[in-house]
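Hi team,

Below is the intake form for RNA polymerase-binding transcription factor DksA from Methylobacterium brachythecii. Please confirm the fields before the structure is written into the shared record.

FORM ID: S-0412
PROTEIN: RNA polymerase-binding transcription factor DksA
ORGANISM: Methylobacterium brachythecii
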Amino acid sequence: MTKVTIDESYTPSDTEPFMNDRQREYFRRKLLNWKSEILREAQGTLSALQSENENHPDLADRASSETDRAIELRARDRQRKLTSKIDAALSRIEDRSYGFCEETGEPISLKRLDARPIATLSLEAQERHERRERVYRDD
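The structure came back. Fields below:
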């Protein structure tokens, strides 16, 4: 990929060619920043869990602490899965398939990508997917 400098105020626009170098660089930066934020939070959680080796004499306090820990670990697991989706999006940027719907091959709207940069389906395809899931879940 050609190295492109991006002004911090740059926002992708529908008036420019879809997934040009500037747009790809914008989303690459957005994904990398998101990933580093998640990793920073995870490191903070890990440090907190390691230092919180309190011995709670009260059973209610111990149960509350264990519940808090379980919730935190579940959140971190979701974020771990999210980082692999971010890595997959970064790979799609490199192979130039980023921004195109995996189902239809059509461009995913810039607004959708800006709101959910790991999106792999256009809004319409995502809605169809969710309707199918609902139908099968109701069985």
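SUMMARY LINE: Residues 101-138 form one domain.

Thanks, M.
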